[in-house]
Structure formats: C-alpha cells, structure tokens
Amino acid sequence: MARIAVAKAADVPDNGPLLVTVDGVEIGIYRVGGQYYAWRNVCPHEAAPVCVGMVCGTRLPSRVYEYHYGREGEILRCPWHGWEFDLKTGEHLAGTRKRLKGYPVEEEAGQLYITV
User: Fold this and answer.
1) Where do the domains of the chain lie, and which CATH numbers do they carry?
2) What is the C-alpha separation between 100 and 85, in angstroms, rounded?
3) pTM of the entire predicted model
C-alpha cells in the first residue's frame, strides 16, 4: 500500500467531487461534515462514472404516503441509473451488497493523502 499526496484540502469543492487520477485510476474526493472520503469513479452496477453524479439527499424512511427528504449533501446519485450511495460508507441505499470502492483519506497541514 502506498500513501500518495493527491490534492490540497481547500481544492475540494462543497458538494464535491474533486476528481484525481492515481496510478491510472480516477477517484472522486468528497468533503462531508468536515471529513474527507475518496471513492473510485466506477459505479458497481454498470461501471458508470459515478463521481460525475449529483450530490444530494434522499427520501427517508416514513409512513405510507408520507415523504420526508433528508441527508442533503451525503448521498451520491449515479448519473446513469440513479443508484444512490452513502458518501460516508459507500453503501448502496437500497440495501444490496453493492458498494463503492473506497480509499482511506488523511489530511495533514491542509494536504490530502490517499492510501492505495
């Protein structure tokens, strides 16, 4: 495993991503609640470039015919088929075992490092 400097923390936009390429692999870096997360830019469903999808919220569990929206800025929606993923865990929201491929991110003195 290698720890690689990829960007300045200040370069990650609100509602990300900052796309970087490490060893030929495109990775999206996101800031959610002050923490940084890095996800491979490949949807596990049909290999879409998931990191170009919208960062949004989603419908929360609720009663029949009641719709509650929440988790704004925590969800990544795939641009091809609308699959939604938790930006903190990479898990698919529908409960399948599909998830995004993630990389540990560390911040030191304003510099972001990814371990690949």
Assistant:
1) 3-115 (2.102.10.10)
2) 8
3) 0.92
Residue matched to tokens 């997360």: 37
Would you say 27 and 20 are in contact if contact means Cβ atoms under 8 Å apart? yes
Tokens at 53, concatenated: 């999808």
- Please write down the HEC assignment for all residues of the chain: CCEEEEEEHHHCCCCCCEEEEECCEEEEEEEECCEEEEEECCCCCCCCCHHHCEEEEEEECCCCCCCEEEEEEEEEECCCCCCEEECCCCEECCCCCCECCEECEEEECCEEEEEC
Give the length of the chain.
116
Nearest-5° Cα angle at 18, 12 to 21: 135
Phi and psi of 34, rounded to 5°? 85, -5
pLDDT tens readout for residues 16-71: 899 999 999 999 999 999 999 999 999 999 999 999 999 999 999 889 999 999 99
